[in-house]
Amino acid sequence: MMITNILTIPHIELPTGLYVVPTPIGNLKDITLRALETLKSVDYIYCENTRHSKKLLSHYKIETQLRTYNDHCNAKDRVHIIETAKAHPIALITDAGMPLISDPGYKLIQEIYAQKLFTTVLPGPCALVTALALSSMPSDRFLFLGFFDTSKAEKVISIDTTLIFYESPKRLLRSLNWLSEHMQDRTISVCRELSKIHEENIIGTYEDVIEQFQNKPSIKGEFALVLSPPEQKLLSDDDILKLIHNNQYNLSAKDLIKLISDSCKLPKKRVYNLYHKSQTHKE
Q1: d(Cα 107, Cα 276) in Å, to the nearest integer?
Q2: Superfamily assignment of 3-121 in CATH?
Q3: What is the Cα 82 distance to its own chain's centre?
Q4: Roughly how many angstroms between the first and final C-alpha of the chain, as a whole number?
Q5: Cα separation of 138 and 115, whole Å?
Q6: CA dihedral 228, 229, 231, 235 (to 10 degrees)
Q7: pLDDT tens-place string over residues 36-78
Q8: What is the arithmetic mean of pLDDT over 134-156?
Q9: Beta-carbon contacts of residue 153 (< 8 Å; ≥ 6 apart)
Q10: In whole angstroms, how far apart are CA 147 and each of 150, 162, 184, 240, 274?
Q11: pLDDT band per the 50, 70, 90 thresholds, residue 4
Q12: Which fold has domain 127-227?
C-alpha cells in the first residue's frame, strides 16, 4: 500500500520566515513527517528545478506553489525572496538531500540572518553522511570537499583524515586515476545511487575499483567517493635510525625522540632505545 493512501498530511500555521527542508536523495519514502507537514504549510517552496520537485510534491499530494532558486539566481533574486519571507513562511529545498550542501543556498541564509528573520533547518537525508556511514571508513573526523577537483585535492593529499568527494559518471574514471597516482596510501569506497534500487558500494584499492568500473558496459548514477585516512607505513629499525641520524635541526635527544615518536606514531620507548643504540655505536 502506498504511504500516500494511509497518511494525511495536516496543514498547520507557521510563523513567517525561512524553513530549510531536506528532501530524499533517491527513495521518495526517505522524508520525515515534519518535512511533509512543512512543505504543505508554507506559502511558497523555492527549489532548484520546479519540474524535478513537482514529482515529490505530486507523490504526497502537496500543492504548494513552487518557485526557482538555483545557481543562476543573483543578489536581486535573493532580495525578492527575503522580502517574501518577511510576509510569508517559505521553504528552501534542493533536488536531493540537504540544502546548502554543494549548492548556493548558503548565500540566501547569510542574507536572511542579516535581516534577523526567523530561520530553521529540518534534519534529514544527506548523501555525504549516508556515504560515510556506508563506506566503513573512520568517521570520527572527516573533510567534505564537494565535487572532485584536482586543485582542491592537491591541497589535502597528506591530511590525516577521511576525505569525501562527490563525482559525476562522466568524470569518475578520470578522477579515480588521478587519485590512484597521488593518494596511493588510502583505501577508497565508491558509493553509487545511494538509497535507490541500484545502490552499490565498491571498496578496495584504486586498481580493483577502477577495474570494476572499466568492465561495466556503461557508468551511470550519482557518486560519492570516500577515502580513508593515509595508512601508516610500518617503519623498520633502520628507517627510524635514519631519522635519528638526520637531525637537521640539532634537536636535543629528548626533543628528537618526541618529534619522531609523535610524527610517526611510534612508541616512545622504541625510539628511545634506538636513539641510545645509535649513540653507543658512535662511541
Answers
A1: 59
A2: Tetrapyrrole methylase, N-terminal domain (3.40.1010.10)
A3: 28
A4: 84
A5: 39
A6: 180
A7: 999 999 999 999 999 999 999 999 999 999 999 988 888 899 9
A8: 95
A9: 145, 165, 178, 179, 182, 183
A10: 10, 15, 20, 39, 45
A11: very low
A12: 3.30.950
